[in-house]
Design goal:
Elements: H1 2-5, E1 10-14, H2 28-40, E2 44-49, H3 58-70, E3 75-78, E4 92-95, H4 104-112, E5 117-119, H5 126-135, E6 139-146, H6 158-161, E7 180-183, E8 189-194, E9 201-203, H7 208-214, E10 218-221, H8 228-248, E11 260-263, E12 277-278, E13 300-309, E14 312-315, E15 326-330, E16 336-345, E17 348-351, E18 362-367, H9 369-376, E19 381-393, E20 397-404, E21 409-415, E22 419-420, H10 427-435, E23 443-451, E24 456-457, H11 460-480, E25 500-501, H12 510-518, E26 523-524, H13 528-531, E27 538-542, H14 546-549, E28 569-573, E29 576-583, E30 588-593
Parallel strand pairs: 1-2, 2-3, 3-4, 4-5, 5-6, 6-10, 9-12, 19-23, 25-26
Antiparallel strand pairs: 6-9, 7-8, 7-28, 11-19, 13-14, 13-18, 15-16, 15-18, 16-17, 19-20, 20-21, 22-24, 27-30, 28-29, 29-30
Length: 605
């Protein structure tokens, strides 16, 4: 609801089962309440049903989708193509990014199979997005801020290989956020301990115009398991950015929902959870994107450490800090650490634990106590629907007519004896003032017209009564008249772009096999979870590259990389080991378990 209030046009939310975060669940009853609230603003609710399914779960999944349809949910987001084989209600289906939507042929196939919206892979660049948009009329959605999965979504098997917690089943153990030792092919340690697979968070807010023109119609804020401050701050920041674009292009584009949000704060992405930001690959590979020091929040840059004095720090721009703030810095061992601000005395920042730091250390704030308090106030972001009011007299009393910004209308009569006002001074202004007191309703009075033949006396209580009754009626009319897009899925037989599918297609049930078989696929491997070969499997494919982060990329950094690394490189955490394979032509890195065998590619050849 906070996301809706802050300006979201839609919210995606986990149901009791089959969502990609097993800890991010909501009851069907709570989702029904969310649907009602969202539809008041013509905003949508999408439910994540995006895990892979086993045969014994298919019927429970089908029943859940019917329940979600019955409470008014606008769409379900899926990964498992077996769902398309079910007898479903006429509910819109979206393809989750975990369906690995990264090429035009695949996306066109999904659209032709009845998928209404496709959430594209995060790794795509603008040119690839344009190509996909040209190939299909499907709505395209793209992540715009938030945490990044280092792997191609849906193709990470590290978690299940090291503890039987499947990311594709909603139970990712986040092995990518662990510290690793980096060892070269000669057995020498290159890096003793660092979070070598942890990457920065995504921020494409400055790319909104380019992405809209490339064909993206929906921008997705990653918000799973995040707190209220993060949700409000990210949503508000993107809403303001998008509104500025819409205002500059009123003839070409329009907002997807109703109302406008009033803010009592200035949103800033740096002031809530973040690991530092990257535009990832939307503008091709340019910058280093690792967040090796820590997988925790880095926050907002404050300034450099000037001096350690008595029991505190002297820090540049210390006046930005407040008691209770959390500070983040990288220590001399290259590790992220933090302390809390106990108090600030003059220019001295006194922490709860004075840690020795080199002068010049960059200090960040990763817990902004004052900002958090501001956003936790429910009035910090309030969404209102504009209305016009006309208050007039009738033969037996008075009539209030209201029309909202979307054209919904309602009126309320109040029968009462009419009495001429003894004091007419400011009477009309007082009636307008009382009619404008929309308070906790979702409405704001943009225009108020009073049509009286003479000055009538009317108690404030009567004005408040007719206003309250009319706006309550209008809210119910908006919810009742909401038009959900419905789409009845029809079974198709158009050919899938390839005829042989390996384990990365995550086929884990009989319905998924039937779906692909009907579309011309002749060979299908089982999902990784059903055939894992312990110690010998490929557990990840990623566009992220450890060599590039080290400045040793033979494709982009050949002139400056110096001596070539001895391969294979190995990542080690405790007893867990992974080998790294670098496929330089597609510019991808693979991660394999320690006993796997593969050939090394040498781009110099």
């Amino acid at each position: 609801m906070a996301a809706i209030n802050a300006g979201a046009d839609a919210v995606y939310i986990g149901a009791p089962l089959f969502g990609a975060r097993t800890n991010a669940t909501n009851s069907v009853k709570d989702i029904a309440e969310m649907v009602r609230y969202a539809h008041l603003f013509k905003a949508k609710v999408f439910v994540t049903v995006n895990t892979i399914l086993y045969d014994n779960e298919l019927e429970a999944c089908r029943r859940l989708i019917w329940e979600l349809y019955d409470i008014g949910v606008d769409a379900v987001i899926i990964q498992d193509m077996g769902i398309l084989e079910m007898e479903l209600p006429p509910i819109a289906i979206h393809a989750s990014t975990q369906a690995n939507n990264r090429d035009a042929n695949h996306v066109k196939f999904l659209a032709d199979a009845g998928i209404r919206r496709v959430v594209l892979a995060r790794e795509l660049n603008l040119d690839q997005i344009k190509d996909i948009h040209k190939a299909t009329d499907a709505e395209l959605e793209f992540f715009v801020t938030g945490a990044l999965c280092v792997s191609f979504s849906g193709n990470c098997y590290m978690s299940v290989a090291n503890g039987e917690r499947s990311a594709n089943r909603g139970s990712c153990a986040q092995n990518c956020r662990l510290p690793y030792r980096l060892i070269d092919g000669n057995g020498e340690t290159l890096i003793e301990s660092s979070h070598l697979l942890s990457i920065k968070d995504l921020n494409l807010s400055d790319e909104l115009p380019n992405m809209i023109k490339a064909g993206i119609s929906s921008f997705k804020i990653e918000g799973r398991l995040k707190d209220l401050v993060y949700v409000k701050n990210n949503t508000s920041y993107l809403r303001k950015k998008l509104d500025a674009f819409l205002e500059a292009n009123p003839k070409e584009y329009q907002k997807a929902s109703s109302g406008r949000t009033f803010y009592n704060f200035e949103p800033s992405l740096e002031r809530s959870f973040n690991r530092g930001y990257t535009d990832y690959f939307v503008n091709q590979r340019k910058e280093k994107i690792g967040s090796w020091e820590s997988p925790k929040s880095k926050g907002q840059y404050i300034g450099k450490l000037l001096e350690i004095k008595a029991n505190g720090y002297r820090i540049e721009n210390y006046e930005l800090l407040n008691n209770g703030d959390g500070l983040y810095f990288v220590n001399e061992h290259g590790e992220g650490e933090g302390v809390q601000v106990n108090l600030i005395v003059n220019d001295l920042v006194v922490p709860n634990n004075l840690k020795p730091l080199p002068i010049g250390t960059e200090i960040y704030r990763n817990h902004d106590a004052e900002f958090n308090r501001m956003l936790e106030n429910e009035n910090s972001a309030v969404r209102k629907i504009g209305v016009k009011m006309c208050f007039s007299e009738t033969e037996t009393g008075f009539l209030l007519e209201v029309v909202d910004e979307d054209g919904h209308t309602c009126s309320t009569n109040i029968e009462t004896a009419k009495e001429s006002a003894k004091n007419t001074n400011g009477l009309i202004e007082n009636i307008k003032k009382n009619l404008s007191k929309t308070g906790n309703t979702p409405f704001i009075a943009d225009e108020i017209e009073i049509n009286f033949s003479q000055h009538w006396f009317l108690p404030n209580s009567k004005i408040n009564e007719i206003r309250r009754a009319t706006l309550e009626q209008l809210a119910e009319i908006r919810i009742r008249d909401y038009q959900r897009e419905e789409h009845q899925l029809l079974k198709t037989e158009h050919p899938y772009p390839v005829q042989s599918l390996d384990f990365t297609y995550n086929i884990s049930n009989k319905l998924a096999r039937a779906f692909y078989k009907r579309h011309g696929v002749t060979e299908m491997e089982k999902a990784f979870e059903l055939q894992w070969d312990a110690g010998k499997s490929r557990v990840m494919v990623t566009k992220y590259c450890v060599k590039y982060e080290l400045g040793k990329c033979p494709r982009y950094q050949r002139s400056t990389m110096g001596e070539k690394l001895a391969e294979p490189l190995t990542l080690k955490h405790g007893e867990i080991e992974y080998k790294l394979k670098f496929n330089c032509k597609p510019c991808e890195m693979e991660i394999w378990e320690k006993d796997a065998e593969f050939e090394l590619e040498d781009i110099f050849d």
